[in-house]
């Protein structure tokens, strides 16, 4: 997560906590039903913030990774999560066999392939 996102999120959470604190100081209306509406609105805003700043970008990265893995073909160059560079030799249902520079082959899970380097 970028530093600007973290600072924006911290600022928004601080603002919302201030609003919640001020909402608790207001006198209750008739029956107290009107005083719960600002709290519901604030909780909806907090959920919306977390969705757009954290959950949605994570899902987009997962979809992009799944698409990259489904497009793998023998001969493609890949990088694993462990930092190993290799060339795809064989693709199974849940794993990929890659050949490294020394000629050795490694079997890794499809989730272990994190990127296809350019060039």
Explain what this protein looks like in three dimensions.
There is one protein chain. With 119 residues, the protein is an alpha+beta fold. It has two domains: 3-70; 77-115, Roll (SH3 type barrels). Helices cover 49% and strands 20% of the residues. The chain starts with a helix and ends with a strand. The relative contact order is 0.10. The model has no long low-confidence stretch (mean pLDDT 84).
Number of separate structural domains = 2
Spatial order of the strands in the main sheet?
4-3-2-1-5
Give the helix level as a range of percent: 40-55%
Number of strands: 5
Which consecutive residue ranges, at least 5 long each, have pLDDT under 50? none
Structural class: alpha+beta
Number of distinct helices: 2
Question: Major β-sheet, in short?
Answer: 5 strands, antiparallel
Q: Radius of gyration in whole Å, from Cα?
A: 24 Å
The string of secondary-structure elements, in order, is HHEEEEE
Kindly report the average pLDDT value: 84
Cα-to-Cα separation, first versus last residue: 27 Å
Beta content comes to: 15-25%
What general outline do the C-alpha atoms trace?
Answer: elongated
